[in-house]
Amino acid sequence: MSVRIQKGKALEALNLTPLIDVVFLLLIFFLVATQFSQDDQQLPIQLPSAKNAVPMTVAPEELVVSIGQDGTYMLRGQRLDIQQLESVLAQAIIDNPIQQTVILRGDKRVEFQSVVSLIDLCNRLKVPSYRITTQEDSPEPTLRPDLGGP
């Protein structure tokens, strides 16, 4: 006994529109995800460590300012001096006066004056919220009494 399939009905049953929608959503997701990961890769930075560090998440209204070992400031892939950074932050405060957040990512070897200058700038511009990022402190090796020391 053979099964007859009419060509017109078989083609109507195969609707690719939902599959194409899913592919486009995945494409948009990966484009956005790679943009956020590029913010962390702009400047090679060794973050200082803290015992209670939490993973950094960036909301759309947050600006990530990186401070390199030599004291250079980096925002959105551009190296800026403190005056240029002031104008960018001032515009961000004008655009988002209530929820603007600045995340400071300073290299642990940076001169402290660069960090203080950026914090002072945030205070002068009345940034509603700013945070300093750290990385989780690596656990120190402990000596177990039954194994002895080195």
Features:
150 residues, alpha/beta, Nucleotidyltransferase, domain 5, 2 domains, 5-stranded mixed beta sheet, 4 helices, 7 strands, 39% helix, disordered C terminus
Describe the secondary structure blueprint for this structure.
Elements: H1 7-13, H2 17-41, E1 49-50, E2 62-67, E3 73-75, E4 78-80, H3 82-95, E5 101-106, H4 112-124, E6 129-132, E7 135-136
Parallel strand pairs: 1-7, 2-5, 5-6
Antiparallel strand pairs: 2-3, 3-4
- Low-confidence runs (pLDDT<50, min 5 residues)? 143-150
Largest sheet: number of strands, sense, barrel closure: 5 strands, mixed
Principal-axis shape equals elongated
Distance between the termini: 81 Å
Radius of gyration from CA coordinates: 25 Å
Strand order of the largest sheet: 4-3-2-5-6
CATH architecture of the largest domain: 2-Layer Sandwich
CATH fold assignment of the largest domain = Nucleotidyltransferase, domain 5
The total count of strands amounts to 7
Overall pLDDT: 76
Helix-residue proportion: 25-40%
Short recap of the structure:
By secondary structure, this protein is of the alpha/beta class. The chain has helices at 7-13, 17-41, 82-95, 112-124, and strands at residues 49-50, 62-67, 73-75, 78-80, 101-106, 129-132, 135-136.
Q: Could you explain the architecture of this structure?
A:
The chain has two domains: 10-38; 43-136, 2-Layer Sandwich (Nucleotidyltransferase, domain 5), CATH 3.30.420. Helix content is 39%, strand content 17%. The protein contains four helices and seven strands; from the N terminus they run ααββββαβαββ. The chain has helices spanning 7-13, 17-41, 82-95, 112-124; strands at residues 49-50, 62-67, 73-75, 78-80, 101-106, 129-132, 135-136. The strands form two sheets. The chain has a five-stranded mixed beta sheet with strand order 4-3-2-5-6. A two-stranded parallel sheet has the order 1-7. Strand 5 (101-106), helix 4 and strand 6 form a beta-alpha-beta unit. Mean pLDDT is 76; it is low at 143-150.
